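Give me structure tokens for this 344-residue protein.
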Amino acid sequence: MQTPRDVELEGLDDPPRPPQGPPLRRPPGPGPVAGRHPAARRRRGVVASAGVDVAEARVRDSDIGIWWVDAFTDRAGGGNPAAVCALSKPLAPAVMQAVAAELGLSETAFVEPPGSEGVRPLRWFTPSVEVDLCGHATLAAAHVLADASSSVRFATRSGEVAVARLGERRLELDFPAATVGEEASGEAGLAELAGALGETPVWAGRGGPDVLVELPSAAAVAECRPDLAAIARVDARAVAVFAAGDHVGGDLASADRATGGHDVDYVARLFAPQSGIDEDPATGSLQCALGPLWAGRTGHERLAMRQLSPRGAAMEVTVAGDRVRVAGRAVTVLRGRLDLDAFG
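Here you go.
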């Protein structure tokens, strides 16, 4: 993985340095432009040889560092992709929303430099709204910022969130537990959810900002094909479906190798068209409700879960009183610069 020394995050405003490839050969044709030293063209490699003025390729004050990180996975193409924008100063919410809409990922995280106590302000935006809590984008931000032995503390709309590094590419989020209560378990409520999900629920309730719907099996969760228009009418951040796996006493290593509901305590999926996301590939914040719910049923505080989205994701969930710790891995896929001038 890339460490802060690799990406040079000092102050969050230094640009990442692109890898240096072999020297380019000038194609046959006219010599260097008059008045410009040949070295000036070589300094910018492909940019200069493509005919772009060197000055235009320099990093500008309006540029910010941006990373694409796949969270809750150990391979590119798995888990949930998030963008992480490293700011040198606060941005207007409208600009952050416009950036998130342009990127089109389920969440984009915006991180400011740390304050006097070392806590970094962090905000999350879907393509259409700002959200109060987001697990995978927090994991992605910590993956970019934390070195091999440190933890990172964020100030968020849900309070302070700490992320500890447990080992190579493995991080653990410390979130507040969510309250879980029955709301939709009446006959009419279950019938309405059955129509929206195309599956017959065994239980339904509310966990934090989400509606939770238990299905009879992991296979039912995997095969669920909801009516997204009907889901969008549910008064909640999202609708999550979940079911038991076939493992007791969670182990993230086995969860990483799992397929379907094998070797995990529970499985889940989350649909959030009302938040601009048809299906979230991996949802760390959902475990703030499902972790305590499942721990209360089984008596096990340490659990393994798998999110059965098409991309797939694995998490280890530890319930500790009024806190829930969610552990997983992350992979950096892309690093670059974002031009804020493009957003007005």
